[in-house]
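Notebook, p. 212. Picked up where the previous page left off. The plan for this session was modest: take the two constructs that came back from the sequencing core last week, fold each one, and keep the raw output in the notebook itself so nobody has to go hunting through shared drives later. Recording the first one now, exactly as returned: residue sequence, then the structure token string.
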Amino acid sequence: MAYDLPKLKIKNMNWNPQPTKKSEGIEYFLKDSLGVGRRKSITQKVCPFCSQAVTLDSFKDELSLKEFHISGLCQSCQDSVFG
């Protein structure tokens, strides 16, 4: 079931995702592992795993949207990683 975007009261073009805070050590580890900074990929709305653009309406629920702000993973990559 698609996430009810009108509830968010946000349009994708106005969506400015903000990464959750992580320790510097975690940020460096993720950048070394993925080859791209987690914070940068989230703010630029690009998945660090598959390099695809991420849109607000691509998430199937609020939990998946929250996960994007944590990991930067698009819905497809979240489904692959978390099942």
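Okay, moving on. Second construct, recorded in the same format:
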Amino acid sequence: MSRRKLAEKIKGDVINWSKNVLEPMNKHIGFPACPFAAKWRRDNKLRIEVRLDKTKYEKHLTNIIKDWNKKQHDIIIFCDPYWDQYDEEQFQEKIDFYNKTYNRRDVYFMGFHPNNPATVEEQEFLVNPHDDGDWEPEYQYSMMLVQKYKQLYEASCKLHKIGYYKKWPAEYYDDVVKTRQDAYEKLFKKEKRHDGNEKTSHEKRR
């Protein structure tokens, strides 16, 4: 299979992941796993890019960020079929590097590595979202999600108000949401908006 054909297959895989995992009503939390995924897809606000060769990962991703039209796309998903060049720890170092470099420029990064998938024990709502059968990707690739930080922060604040995080696993919530929200508030000197007067992550989401 040619590299470009593989890239198109991977892009289709990501769309199917959105349709089958992120967009449907999630039986564990009472909301879609990602409440914005369907609108992003329908409104063409999602940009999917695929690394086409084994040259330096950072060069590919940085060029994509430089070319990002934020008025056109709300989120970029950068997929890498050559993920075996780095392990989970090295991938996390890439995520941390980009966050350190770009957070102040209103860009936030999250990543998923094939060797560190969601598990039933820790994130069942991402593994078994509904009763229509488990969905598995056809191809393996890492994913770097690139989003507008302010938009992401404000969306999380709104989701708190409607109880979206109430049934999230506490540790996963702290790792994914609380650290991100706290970092935004510290970076931009914002008053805390997402946790009110509550003291613990469990209480926040009740």
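Notes on construct two before I forget. The radius of gyration is 17 Å.
Flagging for discussion at group meeting.
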